[in-house]
Specification:
Length: about 150
């Protein structure tokens, strides 16, 4: 099952990167069985992020998005761990202060731009594995867009 989930999550992240979109946490959590613990979900996410192209320079976890448009705290922990000098230049020393919402948005914009550029250069152009609900959702969006014309 983990192999299927890994493939699904990898496909969703690559698709979001190629299309310059984000992956809402609701969609991230929807691919997992309800009984799967959050710790296991995030461990799987970490494993997927380690194997995506771009390494630590292109953190595909930046594409995850809460209702406010920002990724969760796990992204900011990774950003500090792998880009401390850049984090400090924008938000100050994390030992003494937390990044403001404006600074968090700037950090996320930088990280997402890196991912989008990396995906445009290196990600294969194959569609993600889709579930029936994904196809219905996409078709519904097209119908709404056509009705608005």
């Amino acid at each position: 099952m983990d192999e299927q989930l890994t493939a699904r999550l990898t496909g969703l992240l690559l698709h979001a990167a190629r299309s310059r979109h984000v992956l809402p946490y609701t969609r991230f959590h929807a691919i997992f069985p309800r009984t799967m613990a959050l710790t296991h979900r995030y461990a799987l996410l970490d494993a997927v992020l380690e194997h995506l192209p771009g390494g630590h320079d292109a953190d595909y976890g930046a594409l995850l998005s809460r209702d406010n448009g920002l990724p969760g705290p796990e992204f900011f922990r990774r950003f500090k761990r792998h880009h401390l000098a850049e984090y400090t230049a924008i938000a100050g020393d994390p030992r003494y202060r937390n990044a403001s919402l404006k600074e968090q948005r700037l950090l996320v914009d930088i990280a997402r731009t890196r991912v989008y550029e990396q995906a445009a250069r290196h990600a294969p152009d194959t569609p993600p594995e889709r579930h029936h609900n994904d196809i219905e959702h996409a078709a519904g969006k097209r119908l709404v867009a056509q009705a608005g014309r």
